[in-house]
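Illustration: Short-chain dehydrogenase TIC 32, chloroplastic.
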Amino acid sequence: MKATLKYMAGIAGPSGYGSNSTAEQVIQDSSCFFSDQLTAIITGATSGIGAETARMLAKKGLRIVIAGRDLKKAKEVRENIWKETPNAEVIVLEIDLTSFASIHRFCSEFLSLGLPLHILINNAGIFSQKLEFSEEKVEMTFATNYLGHYLLTEMLIEKMVETSETTGIQGRIINVSSVIHSWVKRDGFCFNHMINGTNYNGTEAYAQSKLANILHAKELARQLRERNANVTINAVHPGIVKTGIIRAHNGLITDSLFFFASKLLKSTSQGASTTCYVALSSKIEGVSGKYFADCNESNCSSLANDEAEAEKLWNNTCALIHKRLHQAAT
Ligand SMILES: NC(=O)c1ccc[n+]([C@@H]2O[C@H](COP(=O)([O-])OP(=O)(O)OC[C@H]3O[C@@H](n4cnc5c(N)ncnc54)[C@H](OP(=O)(O)O)[C@@H]3O)[C@@H](O)[C@H]2O)c1
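Result:
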């Protein structure tokens, strides 16, 4: 109750920001200042929260890589950024997170540019009521929201560590999760069921993938700490924003729910604020493996905090990826 009132009133937390803070306010903050030009990759920057994040980071002077599966849409986002920030350096590269080959191509193309990599924003996401499978025969929501981002991060992490070592600037990875992760019960989080889409339910699959985003951040943060790497990884809940991911579920019930919940909805700029805060603010220098909402560190579910569960998910994912890569090679 107290948290809901705080949310509705937009009361600022320890960061100085709250639920109604916008990405524009966050990037104007002096704690988000860098003397070097930073490079950020943003997945799913062709619409919604990702497009707004890209616009804001470009306005702040970062070099942006729009990682999108639809190049026409990605180029339109770039045109819009250029209208507002004509000197912005915006690179468009193709990626389909449901295809290992596409992720591999994206990484090769990016790495061949010889650019540094300071920030990776794993933002793309889907919420599908239909049971479908990716190129590697993994249920589509899990493949897009979690597995694709896991592989992408794996393929770029050494570049991020190297960049942090040569520039002295901390690398940051942000996994865009959701508060809905807390709906997942322990016995509903079974790796084989998730990849095979057993007893598929769209909402459950979405929640499980968002829980996986947090567990991924927890385990990778632990590993990066262990090797003393100056790269952090955190998960964020952007807030509820009426973007494409929600519009895909239009209908009388969803529309009515959104009409009545409209006071709780965020604008797209408010939705991008937590990602921008975690990507740039010096106030969270060194903070890793945490969960943020409304631009402040927040509590995630006990399952999301379970280190053994995070390690188990990591090991299962590693094994799956190697198995699928081996199958593709034979
Ligand atoms: N909106 C909310 O209320 C809310 C709440 C909590 C968390 N989130 C999270 O916020 C993130 C952004 O969502 P959004 O609300 O901005 O939704 P959105 O407007 O639907 O954007 C989703 C983005 O993901 C991209 N994408 C989907 N599948 C992809 C694939 N296979 N490969 C590459 N890119 C792919 C989409 O590309 P196309 O343009 O090609 O479709 C689009 O750019 C998601 O992770 C979502 O789970 C959103």
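Reading the tokens back as a structure: The CA atoms of residues 238 and 271 lie 5 Å apart.
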